[in-house]
Structure formats: structure tokens, C-alpha cells
Structure prediction request, 322 residues.
Amino acid sequence: MDQIVQQLKNSRNVLLASHENPDGDAIGSLLALGLALDFLKKKTVLYNPSPIPAVYRFLPSVKRIVRHLRKGEGFDTAVILDCGDLERIGNGAAVAAQVAVTINVDHHVTNTGFGTYRLLDTRACATAEIVYRLIKALDIAVSRDMADSIYTGILTDTGSFRFSNTNHAAFAICAEMIACNADPYQIAQQVYGKYSLGRIKLLNLALDSIEISRNGRLSLMTVTKEMLAETGTQPEDADGLINYAKRIEAVAVAALIQEQVHSRSGLKNNQFHVSLRSDGTVDVARIAASFGGGGHASASGFSIQAPLADIKDRIFSLAEEL
Prediction:
């Protein structure tokens, strides 16, 4: 921690990045640390390669997040947040790889240990928990905007304090964030309380797509480009839909196969992202790793290029071992 704190204090131009298809933890961690570095008068660029899901656009300074990086911006430090490996930041990985010092801040068990410095804690409930500790180590007072971001990161990555990664720190830090004027009611309303009509229509199509393995232990949901077009929605509107497939009685593992509209190298056919969720009895991080992905024991994912029918067959073959 001390080396990382000193590096950030000595830096002038910092790149902050989090993983593509960002969740609340990736966005909250990115914003909170960016706001903290503002207090140290650092020049910062906040980067994420994907559109920000509508439910997180209420967060302060979210419009600062850019989707494209230019080479030669003179970064002296890159902080990669909530990523198991550098490639998780998409096209920005090429720029980040050229930065002299890289700081890897993460809580995933599948983290590859990349970077000059590493701040890794697999026991942390969220990367936002680690960012909170880093902000404290930098001796920066938590502002309301930081508090909103940290609270959102922890709230969403613990599934509203329902997932097995919910720990003592999750409650303690969130209590402190409320003391720093984060509003738990308003944040919950923004994240969970409002859906567009298009998202409701997408949910209806996604529910109709659910298939169950013969032994009833695996559920599979599909979201295609055609479904997005029919409902007038964006890829980020599929965020959280997998939880419906997960809650089916007797299901141990739920999978959401989501067709990608854009890939890192442009438009491609048969490009999908597969999200996996477990009821706690199956380590889906191990499954994701076998496909080149990663994540948590209870929530993981991977990207794959193959015909949809082939992907379904490969996923359903997993059910025999559940």
C-alpha cells in the first residue's frame, strides 16, 4: 500500500480504467478514485470502453468517463480497477501497456497478478472496498460524491448485501458513506427502482428464452441483437436479467448468453459474452476460467466467438457435473 500511495502522490498524469461491460463496482470504483485524485491536483483520465448502463448515469462525474484513448497522452501511471487481467479494459489495454507504472487494484480470485504494483484482496466484498482503503491511505476526506460512488459499488457487488461476499466491511463502510451524506434510498431507487419500457419488453423476451437442462440444475437465458433492436434497448439494458434465471427452483448455475453488438476489433458475427451465476454450491469462476474468462466463485463470465447453438451445447454439457 505504501508504495502505491507514494506512486500516486508523485504522479502527474494518471489513467484510471475499469472493465468493459461495467457493473456498479467497476463504475463506482473508477469515479471514487478519480474524485480522490482531484483533491491531489492530479491530471486524470477516466476510461471505460463500454457505454455506461443507464441505471448508473446518476452518479456524480459519470460524464467524465471516456470510451476512447489516444496514444501519446503522457500518462505516468495507470490504475486498472476491478479487472482480472489487463485485456479486460478492451482497446485501452494497448495504451495502458505503454504506461511506465501500472497499479492493479482488484478483488477477483482469478486475477493474473499483472502490473508494477498490486493491491489485491480476494476477501474484499468489492473493489470499492479496496478503493475506500486507498483513499483513506492517501489521507483524503471522503466527499459526498465519493461516498455515493463507493456505496453504489459495494451495494451492487454484494447484491444488496445478499451475496456470500457480504462481509463486516461492507456494512461498516456503507454506514460511514451514509455519514458522509450518501443517500441509500435515492441510490437504491436509481439502481433498482426505475426501468424503461424497452427494458421491460427485453425482460419479457429474455424470460421466454430460458431453457433448463434435463437435470434441472442449469438454466440458460439468451439476449440477441435482434431482441435489442425489437425493444429499442442497448446491451447494458440486459444487466441483471440473469438473476431471474438464477432464482428458478433447483437451479445451481444460471448462464446468460449475450450477443455482442461491437467487439474490440469492430463488428463481428458469432461474438458473445456469457455471464455465469451460482447459488453458492458451484464455483463458476473455475468454469469461466476454462473458457478463458474469470471472476468470482458465485459470479463470473467469459467472451467467446462461436455459433450460438454450439455455445449452448457446451454450456448444457456442464449440467451433467452439477
About this structure: The longest strand covers residues 271-278.
